[in-house]
Specification:
InterPro entries: c-di-AMP_regulator, YbbR. This is YbbR-like protein. It comes from Poritiphilus flavus. Pfam families: YbbR. The chain is elongated, with a radius of gyration of 40 Å. About 10% of the residues are buried. With about 325 residues, the protein is an alpha+beta fold. The chain is about 20% helix and about 50% strand.
Length: about 325
């Protein structure tokens, strides 16, 4: 019993000792990391504000080494998350078609992006050199690669709307030379019974490595409506008759199967359509004329002539 108590007390003393040891270590670590040190670190460069007329192809380096005076905490943070420095290229220097940023310029940009408790003692003395490609641009139309499958008794009103219907492409001259149009990726919409609006991505060839689109997708919308059908009897008008002749057709009216909104069908009649038979296109040996619908109201989606030929009798005066 007494031995068990002694062992328990001893284990408790060990735990207390370890806790104090850990606290002492943390206090020492915080104290050491709070001190100021001088050491080297690496900055990763991110190039921004490239002139609109140029495309950066290569940079002589994307990292620079610097000797800093900073706290231990700051150096520790660099080890886990390397510092990224933005280098502004809006004011490039140029000599003999070579673009560069001298060490003095990018050093000052680095200093502005460091906290006030850090200071740069030294930085790579290398000048940053860049290779650029001249950029050109042109506008090209967007082609749709979309399939529309409507639900039973539904129709598409008008054309599909595309926004934007043209885009601006910017890139090297040799890449733009082969681009006249851009197409959407293939898409199929099925069983549509309501008007819709959807996004379609634009296809971009892998060969266009340096070409940029002003938009990578377009909005496609369409108006879908439920239709009804109506048969309308329309008189046949014969055109291009020879002088001094009269003609009589059998029948003298043809049936049109019209598809439109119900409310629109109620408003239309025979006078809104024009059906003609062209005598000038008929051979003398034939006894019938071909019938053609040449005008219909815009509100009618489709109108089908159910009888495409009529017989006739020609009389000479």
């Amino acid at each position: 019993m007494i031995n068990e108590i002694k062992n328990g007390l001893q284990r408790r003393k060990v735990k207390i000792f370890l806790i104090f040891l850990l606290c002492s270590f943390l206090a020492w670590l915080v104290s050491r990391l709070s001190e100021t040190y001088t050491s080297r670190t690496t900055f990763h460069l991110v190039f921004t504000n490239v002139p609109d007329s140029l495309l950066m192809d290569k940079a002589s380096k994307d990292k620079v080494e610097a000797r800093l005076r900073a706290s231990g905490f700051q150096f520790l943070a660099f080890n886990f998350n390397p510092k990224r420095i933005q280098i502004d290229l809006s004011e490039l220097d140029m000599v003999e078609s070579s673009y560069y940023v001298p060490q003095g310029k990018y050093r000052s940009q680095i200093e502005k992006q460091l906290s006030g408790s850090m200071s740069i003692l030294d930085v790579d003395r290398d000048t940053l050199f860049f290779e650029f490609l001249p950029l050109f641009e042109k506008e090209i139309p967007v082609d749709l690669n979309i399939g529309i499958n409507l639900g039973p008794n539904y129709l598409l009103e008008g054309e599909l709307e595309v926004d934007p219907d043209t885009i601006t492409v910017k890139g090297p001259k040799d890449e733009l030379a082969g681009i006249d149009r851009v197409s959407t990726l293939e898409m199929v919409l099925t069983d549509l019974t309501d008007s819709f609006r959807t996004t379609a991505a634009l296809y971009k060839s892998e060969s266009l490595k340096h070409t940029v689109y002003s938009a990578n997708s377009v909005q496609i919308s369409g108006r879908v409506f439920r239709f009804s059908e109506k048969i309308i009897e329309v008189p046949v008008e014969v055109i291009n008759l020879p002088e001094g002749t009269e003609i009589k057709t059998f029948p003298n009216v043809v049936s049109l199967l019209c598809k439109a909104r119900i409310e629109k069908l109620k408003e239309i009649g025979a006078s809104d359509f024009k059906v003609v038979a062209d005598y000038g296109q008929t051979k003398e040996t034939r006894q019938f004329l071909n019938v053609e619908l040449i005008s219909k109201p815009e509100s009618v989606h489709s109108a089908q002539i159910l009888q495409t030929q009529v017989e006739f009798i020609l009389k000479r005066e």
